[in-house]
Amino acid sequence: MEQKKQRAAQWFEELRDIICAEFEKIESEDVNNTAPKGRFERKAWQRTDEHNPTGDTNGGGGEISLMYGRVFEKVGVNISTVHGYFSPEFRKQIPGGEESDGQFWASGISLVAHMKNPHVPAVHMNTRMIVTSQHWFGGGMDLTPALPKTEDTNAWHEANKACCERHGDVVDYQDLKDWCARYFFLPHRGEERGIGGTFYDQLNTGDWEKDFAFTQDVGRTFIDSFPKIVRRNMFEAYTEEDHAKLLEKRGRYVEFNLLHDRGTKFGLMTGGNTEGILMSMPPEATWLKKPEGMMPVNDFLKKAA
Amino acid sequence: MEQKKQRAAQWFEELRDIICAEFEKIESEDVNNTAPKGRFERKAWQRTDEHNPTGDTNGGGGEISLMYGRVFEKVGVNISTVHGYFSPEFRKQIPGGEESDGQFWASGISLVAHMKNPHVPAVHMNTRMIVTSQHWFGGGMDLTPALPKTEDTNAWHEANKACCERHGDVVDYQDLKDWCARYFFLPHRGEERGIGGTFYDQLNTGDWEKDFAFTQDVGRTFIDSFPKIVRRNMFEAYTEEDHAKLLEKRGRYVEFNLLHDRGTKFGLMTGGNTEGILMSMPPEATWLKKPEGMMPVNDFLKKAA
Hints:
- Chain A has helices at residues 2-29, 88-91, 150-165, 173-183, 208-233, 240-259, 262-269, 274-277, 297-304, and strands at residues 41-48, 58-67, 72-85, 103-115, 122-131, 135-144, 185-186, 191-192, 196-203, 284-286, 295-296.
- Chain A has 305 residues and is of the alpha+beta class.
- Chain A has a single domain, classed as oxygen-dependent coproporphyrinogen oxidase (3-Layer(aba) Sandwich), CATH 3.40.1500.10.
- In chain A, the strands form two sheets. The first copy, chain A, has a seven-stranded antiparallel β-sheet. A two-stranded antiparallel ribbon of chain A has the order 7-8.
- In chain A, helix 1 (2-29) packs parallel to helix 5 and helix 3 runs antiparallel to helix 5 (208-233).
- The longest helix of chain A is centred in the N-terminal third of the chain and has 28 residues, at 2-29.
- Chain A starts with a helix and ends with a helix.
- The A-B interface holds A 20, 39-44, 64-66, 68, 74, 187-189, 247, 251, 254-255, 258-259, 265, 268, 274-275, 277-278, 281-288, 290-291, 293-297, 300, 304 and B 20, 39-44, 64-66, 68, 74, 187-189, 247, 251, 254-255, 258-259, 265, 268, 274-275, 277-278, 281-288, 290-291, 293-297, 300, 304.
- Strand 11 of chain A pairs antiparallel with strand 1 of chain B.
C-alpha cells in the first residue's frame, strides 16, 4: 500500500505540472491581447493534525497554484497529500473510518478555471485516492458554460464517454454521467450547475492497478479535451450582454459551492485550508437579475386594488 | 392572540412603507448624479403549505420590494406573513413546535442594502414575530462597512444602545451586541462580517406589549440612524482601490450568507421563496485577492530546493 500511495501522490503532482504548463502555453497563444500573459504563482501549506493520539501534529500538506491571466481569468490548481486521524464524529461517516481508529491518508488534485471570454466554459476537475482501513479513488470533471455550444457540449461528453469505455471493467459511463448531473444540481434554482461530465466516488473494483489507470485517464482526458474547447472559443468576439450572462452564471457557481458542495463545506467546517478551498470562487460574480413579475409600486398597488 | 398577530403584521407593513419612502427620498437627493434615481419595484408571492393535515395548501405569502438605484446599488425589503404546519423534523427544533403539532404563524420584515459608494456601509435589518404553542419576537440590525469610519461606527452603536436602554426591562444592550458579534462571524476567515449592532431571538418577557414596543423601536431606530450614515457619506469621492475593497468585502458577505446564515440556509433547504431569500446577495462581488506568500513558480522551486 505504501508504494501505491506514493505512485498516486506522484501522479497527482505530475498531472498538476502538465496542466499548469498547458494552461500557460494557452496564455502565450493569445498574441494579439495587450494584457500581460498569465503565469502561475505557487504556495505551500502544511496541515496540522489535531486528533493524533500520540500528539504528533504533522498532517502533511499541499501546494496551491494560482494564475490570474488574460485567457484564464482565474484558475487554481491544488494538490495535497495529507494524513492523520479523523475526528471521532467524522470517522463514523467515512468508509473504514472506525475500523482504522480514524487514521487516514488522502492525496488528490483539484482544479477550477474561470475564463475571461464568456464563450469559453468554466471547468472543474478533481481526482483523489483515500485510504482508511479501506481504500478507494474518487473524482470527475464537469463543464459550466455561460453560453452553451452544442459542439463543445458534444465534444466534452464524447471525451468522457470514450475515457470510461476504455475502462469498461472499472466504470460505467452512464452511471458517472448521471451521478455528475445529480451532484452538480441547485435544488433552490431547479437548475444544474453546468452541462455535467463525470463524477465517481468510493471506486474500488478490487483491482487497484485498474482503478488507478482509470483515475490517471480521467486526468489525461481532461488535458486532452478541455484545451481544445478553450482554443476553439478564446478568440471569439463577445458583447456586454454575453459578459453579463457569464457573471450571473458565476453567481450560481458560488451558490452551489457554498450551499451544496460537500468538499467545500466539509473543508471549511473542519478547519481545512480556507485559501485553497475558496480558490474555486470566481474572480467576479453578479446577482443583478430582477425576479420575474416585479413592477413599479404604483402599478402593483393599482393591480392589488 | 389574533389581534396581536394582526398588529404585528400591520406594523411590519407600515415600517416597509416608511423605509421605502425614505430610501427613495435619498435617491432623489443625489441631484448631481447623471444616473437615473432609483425607484422600488414590487412583487407578491404566495407560500404553499405542504404539511397541513387537512390538505389545505394556503400558507400565506409576502411582498418583495427591490430597488436598483444610484445611491442604493441594490436594496431588497421583504415582508411576509405566513402560516401552516412545520415538517415533522423541523417542529422538533422550534420552541413549542411539537406542542402545537407543528402549527405556526410568522410575520416579519427583512432588509439588506448594498450601497454604490464604498464609503457608505451595507446594512441588514430584520424583525419578526413567531407563534407556535409559544410566541416570541426576534430580529436586530447590523452594519457592514468596507471602509469603516469611527464616526459611523460610534453613531450606529450609540443608536442601538439608546434603543435598548429605552426598553431596559425587556432587553440588555450588551447581550444583544455580543450576540450580534457572535452570530455574524465567519469562522473560516476568523473575521466578523461587519461591525455588528444588535441581534435577539425568542424574546418573550411575558409582557407582549413591551416586547412589541421594543421590536417597533428597533425599526424606528433603524430609520432614524441608517439614513444619517448614508447622507454623511454618499457624496464622498472614492478611488478604484476603495471600490475594489467594497467588492472583496461583499465576497465575504456572500460567504457568510450562504455558508452560515440560518435564515438563508433554512429557507432554501425547506422550499422557501428563493427570490426573496437571495435578494440579500450583493449586486456584484469579487474574489480577487491572492493568498499571502504566493510566488512565481521558479522562485517557489528555487526556495524549495
